[in-house]
From TrEMBL:
The lineage of its organism: Bacteria, Bacillati, Actinomycetota, Actinomycetes, Propionibacteriales. One of its GO terms (cellular component) is cytoplasm. It comes from Nocardioides eburneiflavus. This is Aldo/keto reductase. The keyword Cytoplasm does not apply. Gene3D superfamilies: NADP-dependent oxidoreductase domain. One of its GO terms (molecular function) is oxidoreductase activity. It comes from the Bacteria. The keyword ATP-binding does not apply. Coiled coil: none annotated. Residues 22-316 form the NADP-dependent oxidoreductase domain.
């Protein structure tokens, strides 16, 4: 199988980081989307690097903690090829219990040290606050993150799921290189305020779940698509996968499938190509733990969308037609 070479894109202007235009989300290798698969995850990371997908995304909470270890082992000996991103802020205990969102400066420092140890590296390229702690001024959290940059432990700073106002305040303390937030044909609310703000400030966008947590691949049906009991997508935590909402959303996917057939690609490749077409400051991180799905995602780089294609997609999947909130509990999203 041949693949179009993966181009590079630059995130941020004040503190620029060059990454592969398509990244790899590593979360599902360890938790949430079915049975963990360390060997499959390792094989997928190795194949990603061989294909030029060098922007790897993890977080301390995934596993918890085990995903960073997996990623660290997988990139050992190839660290110089990788743009390594991890996150702090969703505090968990070793048994998986969620403690809460923590943005206190002392926690920022200790979380970073722990991540570096698990990853087996002396620095990470991009360090995100995973969720905004509304009990701690963002200036204090980012101030502590900036200390990590000065100490050489972190090269660039990022935020995840932050509001426009929070982003602006954070950027005033230290340049923010990237915002990671959910963005896909199924999730476009950031276009109202957040996207204009980060473009004004020169901050790159790293969309997670660019395939709508798998819905936009066409692989999920009303009766299956969940990888065993551990697949959290089938829980009430993700309303778009429930009942009538799922039926309505799958009807939208059918329309995407029709356009994909005309383009000679898969629905997932078409959906990823749409995200890639939203700007050169956008680097999505579709997640997978399987080499075959990685290779399918990489194929999106060869899908060229015309203005007519983009218009057809947006008519096929109007923003208001997507059924269900993206999370059952949106209280952890900064607003």
């Amino acid at each position: 199988m041949t693949h179009t070479p993966i181009a590079q894109r630059t995130l941020g202007t004040a503190s620029p980081l060059t990454v592969s235009s398509l990244g790899l989300g590593c979360m599902g290798m360890s938790e949430f989307y079915g049975t963990p698969d360390e060997q499959g995850g390792t094989d997928t990371i190795h194949r990603a690097l061989d294909l030029g997908v060098t922007f790897l995304d993890t977080a301390d909470m995934y596993g918890p903690f085990t995903n960073e270890q997996l990623v660290g082992k997988a990139v050992a000996g190839r660290r110089d090829e990788v743009q390594l991103a991890t996150k702090f802020g969703n505090e968990r205990l070793p048994d998986g219990t969620m403690v809460g969102i923590n943005g206190r400066p002392d926690y920022v420092r200790s979380a970073c040290d722990a991540s570096l140890q698990r990853l087996g590296v002396d620095h990470v390229d991009l360090y995100y606050q995973h969720r905004v702690d509304r009990t701690v001024p963002i200036e204090e959290t980012v101030g502590a993150m900036a200390e990590l940059v000065r100490a050489g432990k972190v090269r660039h700073l990022g935020l995840s799921e932050a509001s426009a106002a929070t982003i602006r305040r954070a950027h005033g303390v230290h340049p923010i290189t990237a915002l990671q937030t959910e963005y896909s044909l199924f999730t476009r609310d950031l276009e109202d305020e957040v996207l204009p703000t980060i473009r004004e400030l020169g901050i790159g966008l790293v969309p997670y779940s660019p395939l709508g947590r798998g819905l936009l691949t066409g692989a999920i049906t009303r009766s299956d698509g969940a990888d065993g009991e551990a697949d959290r997508r089938r829980s009430a935590y993700f309303p778009r996968f429930q009942g009538e909402a799922l039926s309505a959303n799958l009807a939208l996917v059918d329309k995407v499938r029709e356009i994909a057939a005309e383009k000679g690609c898969t629905p997932g490749q078409l959906a990823l190509a749409w995200v890639l077409a939203q700007g050169d400051d956008v680097a999505p991180i579709p997640g997978t733990k399987r080499v075959a799905y990685l290779e399918e995602n990489v194929g999106a780089a060869a899908v060229e969308l015309t203005a007519d294609d983009l218009s057809a997609l947006e008519q096929a999947v109007p923003r208001e037609a997507v059924a269900g909130e993206r999370y059952g509990d949106m209280s952890h999203i900064d607003g």
